[in-house]
Amino acid sequence: MNKTNYDQLKETVYSEKLDNGLRVFLLPKPEMAKTFSIFSTDYGSIDRTFVPIGETEQITVPDGIAHFLEHKLFEKEDRDVFQDFTKRGASANAFTSFTKTAYLFSSTSNIEDNVRTLLDFVQDPYFSEQSVEKEKGIIGQEITMYDDQPDWRSFFGTIQSLYNNHPVQIDIAGTIDSIDKITKDDLYTCYNTFYHPSNMTFFVAGNFNPEEMMQLIKENQSAKTFPEKEAIQRSFPEEPSKVAKKKHVIEMPVSMPKCLVGLKENMDHKDNRDFLEKELLIDILLDHFFSKSGKYYQDLYENDLIDNSFSFETNIEKNFGFSILGGNTSKPDELAEKLTSMLVGLREFELTAEEFSTVKRKKIGHFLRSMNSLEFISNQFIHYNLLGIDLFEVLPTIERLTVGDANAFLKDWIDEERIAVCQIVPAQG
Amino acid sequence: MKSVSEEKITTNGYNLHVIQTKKYKTINVVVKLKAPLKRETITQRALIPYILQQGTENYPSARMLRTALDDLYGAVFNIDSSKKGENHIISIRIEFANEAYLSSNEQIIKKAMHLLNEVVFHPKSNGDSFDTGIFKREKQTLQQKIDSIVDDKMSYANMRLIDEMCKEEAYRLHVHGYTDDLNLINETNLYEYYRSLLVEDQLDIYVLGDLEGKDIQNQVAEYFSREVSTNKDKVETNTQDVTKVKEITEAMEVQQGKLHLGFRTNIRFNDPEYYALQVFNGIFGGFPSSKLFMNVREKHSLAYYAASRFESHKGLLFVFSGIAPADFQKAKDIILEQMEAMKKGEFTEEQVDETKNMVVNQLKETMDHPQGLIEILYHQVLANNNIAPEEMIEGISQVTKDDLLAVGEKIQLDTVYFLTSKGGSINE
């Protein structure tokens, strides 16, 4: 078992790669009442075209299947696994993102039994035609719920206008029609391909003894047999750097229009370190210009182009990346134009050393604050781990960044042909 | 061992609550201003949090104020208003890095308290009114907030349910206020109201974090001190008896129908049955193991979510679910069957024990979160008692099946609210 100390953060991480390929990470936090554990696979909504394990031909599966599989893994022949956690006072959950599917629990007692249950239920699928059909009604209502949410529609609408071919533009839950095509056999195909331990990560943070915990996980894993690991062949279409369409307008029965501006990020990083620096610089620069203390916020706010729903976020993964800014606005066209010209104009700016140090301090404070949350630590640890990055390197990396790095990055960051707009406007009539 | 050490000191016109804990890498300070919920003041109180964030005497613009916060290692600062039972609470929160984790040695607590003092006692004004530009812009912000509630159908349905259910009670009041009242507010009368609020509202200040060796009482006293004038308003606690179940259906352009039900529990934070109510809610609709989840979702595939939640200070219990418009009758029947089953005691001793564990687990998890812990402790102020979290946990673990039956006897259905699609008849 490897042990890594992070002195500044006063944290220690224990890790080991098991014989079956599973990567295990443990972060003891004895001052917490709670323990949080997350079992995650490198498999999300974008992994729709691949060669199934043991076969040679590439297939494309119905949209929404990774998320459907996540729902169905909780159901076993004789019971619902939620109940196993419930019996011990634990709460369980799961989520599917573009690139990951993760199963998790949190609990303040019976940690060891809950860890075993988490490992066992994810590694023991039971899918039947009947239970697959039953789930279609439930997920159908989940999709309909999102269809009524203008925030979700504008977020996805922006991604759809940014991407021509990449499957990130496909809704994670799929559509009512696409999930209707899903069969039990499809679920087993995806499960067998993507849920091999060598494609997965197990993380526990909270109140436990690390030696005993690692021992428990190893015993649990060595009692199971898995096929030989195989490299997974996934396929993604070519994606041009240009956006698919400059403007996408969705009519909905809303009282307040929305306007989001999306930027398709360059995917030109050389290595993991370069990737992390880029991600942090984007975050720092968006903050410098568009946060409440930012250069542009007050101007946008006082001119009534934005309200306090305005926000920005960046999502960069292995083979796609975007930033999205915007929110409610009474003037969607004016805001689209203004944000676009602000973004395109950023290349003309240089931050002063003082400005850079202010925003850097802010980022350091926010990172420390998010370290209060076991959920944040666990989710982000797994996120960065999939990208080959150590979460605890984030703080030293922020500290290392210089105003020179930021200004050099700013020069080539944004290009008008990588910007697209999505608006939600009140339906006519 | 006590899991939470809360030291309470009444001084300088407020109650100071100091919570020492080594759990976090940050320090949290929360200032809470409490007054009775009233139609005459709710819109003003809804507007104040927006105005206060726009500038102070020494930081005259929102940007200057935000920059000062950024300089404190990105201190996180927000102000909001909420209703708890028939009280209206303005919460001013700041969270900043603990010096112990920074390479520099700055007096962050002192600087943070200074900023709070600026925001609370010296908002940007000309002496007898708020800044006109700020006032106009924020009035518009609040108006947009009021207008856009309808865009979030879950919140909207919840608000409409309470409108109908609590027509004659102060609890009906909308936390964001009313357009009609907003039109009567100007920068001068709002400022006047704010000055009176500062002396009349009950003021509680929470400081939480690793505070060892820091003289918190004096550091706070240096920046917070006020003369108190007793508020003559009393909290209205009129409660309507259920005579006839109300059923309201409204149609809008939606894909999914929102079926929300309101029950009266007739049990509040100070009542002996409050512990059992938490367990009752857990078995009924509080968790994925609950009757609502298992029946509405898992057995009948009618919904993605079907859950219940209770209000601690008013004595209400709400059911929420998102269903296809055509499934109204079926979903309503199944939900009401689950409540009947609860009242008849159709659950096992094992389920009771499991749910007690879940409730305790949830409480302990909330206590791991700094803001969560402060909210839990503030319940004591709202209910005017001293039930510490340990006592709450002990009380929950003593709950028996008979206690749950007693809760069931007190719960009454009051209102069924259904937001459905246009043209989607409920008899389909």
From TrEMBL, chain A:
* Limits of the Peptidase M16 N-terminal domain: 63-174
Question: Do you know which Gene3D superfamilies this protein is assigned to?
Answer: Metalloenzyme, LuxS/M16 peptidase-like
**Residue ranges constituting the Peptidase M16 C-terminal domain according to the UniProt record:** 181-362
Extract the coiled-coil ranges from the record: none
InterPro entries the UniProt entry points to: Metalloenz_LuxS/M16 (IPR011249), MPP/UQCRC_Complex (IPR050361), Pept_M16_N (IPR011765), Peptidase_M16_C (IPR007863)
Which PANTHER family has this protein been placed in? Answer: METALLOPROTEASE, ZINC-DEPENDENT PROTEASE
Q: What is this protein called?
A: Pitrilysin family protein
TrEMBL record, chain B:
The record ties this protein, via Gene3D superfamilies, to: Metalloenzyme, LuxS/M16 peptidase-like (3.30.830.10)
Enumerate the spans annotated as Peptidase M16 C-terminal domain. 186-358
Q: Where is the signal peptide?
A: none
Classification via Pfam families: Peptidase_M16_C
User: Which InterPro entries is this protein grouped with?
Assistant: Metalloenz_LuxS/M16 (IPR011249), MPP/UQCRC_Complex (IPR050361), Peptidase_M16_C (IPR007863)
Origin superkingdom:
Bacteria
- State the NCBIfam families in the record: YfmF_fam (NF047422)
Tell me the protein's name: Pitrilysin family protein
Annotated organism of origin: Aquibacillus rhizosphaerae
